[in-house]
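Researcher: For the annotation table, I need structure tokens for Acyl-CoA thioesterase 19. Please keep the output clean. Sequence:
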Amino acid sequence: MTEKALSPLLSIHPSRGLIDEKFCVVVRYLPPFEDITLRSLIHSEDGDYWEAYGHYVSDDSGLVNVESNVSLGGTYDGLEPMGLLWSMKPVPGSRTGLRLRKKEIQTPVVVHISVYRGHMSQGFNEQVALASVVTERWYMAPGIRRVDITEGGVSGTLFLPPGLGPFPALLDLWGGGGGLVEYRSALLASHGFASLALEYMTPRTSGSSTSYVGNAYFEAAFTILKEHPQVCGDRIAILGLSFGTSVALGMAVYSTVIQPRCLVCVSGSHVQPVKGSLTDVFAEINKNVRNTRYDEENRVIWRDLLLPIPTDPTKKVDVGRLQCPILLIVGKDDQNWPASESAEDMKQMMEQAGNSHLLTTLSYPGTGHLIEPPYTPHTRSSNFMVTGTRQKLLVLWGGDTKPHSYAQEDSWKKTLAFLEEHLYRGPQSHL
């Protein structure tokens, strides 16, 4: 058989891997200098279809390699090996306000990748692909154990790496959407950390749909993690996103029970009533609800609800009292929280207190509020159910796809390095 008679061959390596692991897509046996389109497709757990596609031209040997060939157009352009994941958008005609999130972390994200002749931007279903492959991307590596936690009134899921341990650990706190979100903790466990994804701001954890758990709930969760036989009790970090940052900062400074080795705070703020609970944080925000703005598409912008950053010390966590290293991750186009202004104020407070050596800030231009693990599709806006109500809003999170996706990759790599430095290699606690 001559090489001209060969059909195009599409391959991906590795065909199975973690969601934050890069892959390489290669098309062989094309005609030289042939225009092709590579397209990825996911059927989400919510029943929606998401796609990305890039336009390529084969080289003189009939080869396209996404690691060395640039995309000339599509949902991404340039040399972007992972553009087939991070540039994904709902297919035309989809419901509005979608956000792609993994709910069942014991199954993979299944990505169908196909190659088509020509540079296509639509009509994929009407064309026959030259070749197709399927890849599985996992949040949960082989051997990770998933343990339901329902003791002491605390509800969550603990993910444990393979082996006996004890392992350094994290208390993983999501934001104002409430509920139990497991995928980040599963991925952290896949990198060697025990991680407790904590459920809060739900009727099950609060006793009603309109109240928020008090500080004792987080202290109980931290204690459960600390006392677990497979956790190294003096090597626990807190990772908070959005409202999770409010909890992390407040507990680290004021709690006598919670003494984390380090903090990672993503897209959050230190503005909250001193020694207050989540109820007090929301009450303070509700006072400024008049500052809510809407863009030209009637999407909600909430970033002004905590502005201006107060000068009253009773209205913000005294981060000058922090005694552990803290990593702040900030999107400079965050339209949901004043993360940039808060980070600058925290820096000034810590400089004045003499503990700024504990602070590391990662600030990313063109980056919005929802800073996720890498290669997760950027969501500039999506539907949001207001906690404790039946009100659904279209919220603007901010960010532009390419810089936001770069920020997700860079911040995740630096988060893992920060956690390794302070949980694995840091000095033993003398507490």
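Researcher: And a one-line annotation?
Model: The chain has two domains: 3-138, 145-424.
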